[in-house]
Specification:
alpha+beta, SH3 type barrels, 2 domains, 4-stranded antiparallel sheet, 2 helices
C-alpha cells in the first residue's frame, strides 16, 4: 500500500513539472521556425540518350564458349599414362613432400636403390618405381639425385595431350655420405 501511495505522488510531481518546461520550449520553437523556409531544389531534368542500333548479327559472338576456351582435342598420344595399372604407395604423395635421404648399393645385383622419406616413414625405391602424383617413373638414381619422368597434361592448356617432363629429387644436405652396401 505504501508503494502505491509513493508511486501516485511521484506521478503527480512529474505531471506538474512537465507543464512549465514545455511551454517555454514550444514558444522558442515557434519563434525560431518563423524565419525558416523549406526549399528543396527540383530534380535535374533527365536528358534522353540517343538510340543506337547494334548490327552484329553477321559478327562472331565475343562471349561464345568456343572463343573463350580453345578447342580441345580428344586426349591421347603416345604419352598417355596407363590408368588401369595398380598404383604404388609413393604415388599418393606429392613429389614436393618426398625427401631423398640416402642410397643403397647392392653389390650382388649391382643395383642402386634410393632411400626416401615421407611423413616420417622410410621407403626404398629403385629404377622403374613410380613416385609422385604425376605418374612419375624413376629412370635413374645417381649419387646425388633421383631422376624421374613425369607424364602431365599439356601445361599450355591448348590441347589435352599428355607430355613427358623430367623432374629430379636432390639428396638432402644432411644426408651426404649415407651410402651403404649390402
Amino acid at each position: 500500500m505504501k508503494a502505491l501511495v509513493l508511486g501516485l505522488m511521484a506521478a503527480a510531481l512529474l505531471a506538474g513539472c512537465a507543464e512549465r518546461g514545455h511551454g517555454e520550449i514550444k514558444q522558442w520553437m515557434e519563434e525560431s521556425s518563423r524565419d525558416l523556409k523549406g526549399g528543396i531544389p527540383p530534380l535535374p531534368e533527365l536528358k534522353p540518350f540517343p538510340v543506337v542500333s547494334y548490327d552484329a548479327a553477321d559478327k562472331i559472338d565475343p562471349f561464345n564458349a568456343l572463343r573463350i576456351e580453345p578447342e580441345r582435342k580428344e586426349a591421347g598420344g603416345a604419352n598417355k599414362p596407363d590408368f588401369d595399372r595398380p598404383r604404388e604407395q609413393l604415388e599418393s604423395f606429392p613429389l614436393e613432400t618426398i625427401s631423398f635421404i640416402g642410397i643403397v648399393d647392392k653389390t650382388k645385383s649391382k643395383a642402386r636403390h634410393a632411400v626416401v622419406q615421407v611423413d616420417g616413414v622410410v621407403y626404398q625405391v629403385g629404377k622403374g618405381n613410380y613416385m609422385g602424383q604425376n605418374f612419375g617413373r624413376i629412370v635413374d638414381i645417381t649419387g646425388s639425385e633421383i631422376v624421374l619422368k613425369e607424364i602431365v597434361q599439356d601445361p599450355s592448356g591448348q590441347t589435352s595431350d599428355w607430355v613427358e617432363r623430367q623432374m629430379t629429387l636432390q639428396l638432402q644436405e644432411g644426408s651426404q655420405g649415407k651410402e651403404s652396401k649390402k
